[in-house]
Structures are given as structure tokens and as C-alpha cells.
Amino acid sequence: MADAKVIPIGEGGRRGRAREEAPADPAPEREAPAEAAGGGLDQALARGFAFLRRRLTGAYEIDDFGYDQDLTDEVLMTLLRPMFDKYFRIEVRGMENVPDEGGALIVSNHSGTLPWDGLMLQVAVRDRHPADRHLRLLAADLVFQLPLINELARKAGHTLACAEDAQELLERGELVGVMPEGFKGIGKPFSERYKLQRFGRGGFVATALRARVPIVPCSIVGAEEIYPMVGNSRVLARVLNLPYFPLTPTFPWLGPLGAVPLPTKWTIQLGEPIETRDQPPEAAEDPMLMFQLTDQVRETIQHTLYKLLVARRSVFF
Length: 317
Description:
It holds the Pfam family Acyltransferase. Residues 1-38 are annotated as: Disordered. This is Lysophospholipid acyltransferase family protein. Residues 104-223 form the Phospholipid/glycerol acyltransferase domain. This protein has a domain at 87-226 and 261-311: 3-Layer(aba) Sandwich (Glycerol-3-phosphate (1)-acyltransferase). Residues 1-38 have low confidence and may be disordered. The protein has ten helices and nine strands. It has helices at residues 33-37, 40-57, 69-87, 116-128, 149-155, 163-171, 183-186, 203-211, 234-240, 287-311, and strands spanning 91-93, 104-108, 135-139, 159-160, 175-178, 215-221, 231-232, 246-247, 267-270. Strand 3 (135-139), helix 5 and strand 4 (159-160) form a beta-alpha-beta unit. The protein has a seven-stranded mixed beta sheet, sandwiched between helices. A two-stranded antiparallel sheet has the order 7-8. With 317 residues, the protein is an alpha/beta fold.
């Protein structure tokens, strides 16, 4: 990987790998989340004690990106699952389009002022994929500059949005998720909801071509309305060194209560994969091909968003 050409993806551009030593003992096999959900209080307590024992004895693994699968499955997914199942009541379609094994790049729209959509997509893949796969999200530089958020993001399997890291994960056979709109998508005003922003220079397409993995377009409806962004305080954004400072009907007027997302009804639609294996080795250096594939992915996501919006009965039901 030392000779790989780095192309920025999304908002990031620097290599962001965590350097943590992984314990030598492999993590023991655990049951799928679906099995645990129906196991009752006794089984939940048994899983909890087993988790504590693994943490105390060091019987868990952390990869060289900082990903802690044991902590993610037993704690982070457990905390996020009620938001997925009960609060946003997310319907997932097209999970059969995500391969059962091997690398794949899931490309999604990005919205909602705060990145709940990325986290919910991670839960969707973990809980709804028949092969119990994990999604490794590419995140912007800002995520890794925030105290606590930095550590949690790495533990959850996120890494800096640069092509070198993404390609290495894909070549290892991982599912990688990217939201190429970056802050332009997540911080756009409510009046521009569900209108995709620019997808950058096609870095995610070049990475998929080099790793020879399929690109899976993903469209998420429901996240745009959780924090209707009606204004942006540029002065506060500059003072706090943020890309934007959102003004919504509830934030900052209601204080911490204003940060509670609205309980909208979500749909996540995963489209048919776009294969890259038939492309020649030099395809990643062809700017016209990258532009065409980038435009194809973007148009697929936008068209699916329109179809989902037309079929939606209500924002909240």
C-alpha cells in the first residue's frame, strides 16, 4: 500500500489510522443480535457478564484502524438499536444487493444536520444483512478532531475518508460506506432537502475501481426532517471552527432539548450493485470513466429518492 495514490474521498484527505495493539487471543464467537433480542433477561445478563469478562481478560481484538468489533456489537449497536427500531422505525429494502462476502463500497446520500443517517445505515447492515456483515464508514476530518467522538468513531470502525485507507479495507473484503456529499449534504438548508449536492471529484469511484469491488448506491429518506435547518449562523460557525452552525425550529432556542431529533419515519433503499471487475486496470486513471460512473451513482441515488418520496404517505408515519 505504500505506492498507492491517495485521492481524497468526501471531506477528508489525510490518512487517519489508529495504532493500537491487538490482544493475541481471538475474540470468542458471539450470537447474532437477533438471537439475543429474543433471549429474555437471563440471556441478556449472561451476554453482559460475558462481555465484561472479555474486557477484563483482554479476550477481544482491535484492528490496526482502531476497530473494536466486540465493543461495537455489545455496546454501541445496543445503544443505537432502539433509535433504529422504535424511534425512526426504519424500513430497509434491497439488502440482498449487498454481497454476502468480499469487499463492496456502499455510497449514500447525506443529510440531517447531524450524521444520524450514517449510524443508522451501520445498524441496518449489521442487523438486516443475512451474513451479519459490518459496515466501515469513512468520516470527515472533524470527526477525528473532537474529544471522545474521535475514540468512539474509531472503536465503531470508522476511519478517515482517504482513498488509501478505503482501498485497504476493501481489499481485505470489508464493506465500506461513504457519503460523498460530506458537509455540503448534511449541512444544506431545509429548503434544499433531498436535492443531492456535488459528489466531489469521483475519488470513491477510483477507489472501487482499484479494489475491483462493486459500488452499491443507497438512498435514505427521512433523515432530512429530523432537524429542519432553517438558518446557519456563520459567525458562530467561525468562532467554533465548524463547517456550519445550524438554526432549527428548536435549536438553540430550547437548549439541549433542541438537539433531540424529530421522530420521522425512515426508509433505506439499497440499489443494484454497479460492477467494476470488468474494467481494465488503468480505468482508475481515466477521468472520463470516473465522471461517468460518479454521475451514474449520483443519478441512481437521486432517482430513487424521488420515487421513495412520491410513495411516502407522511413524514412521521
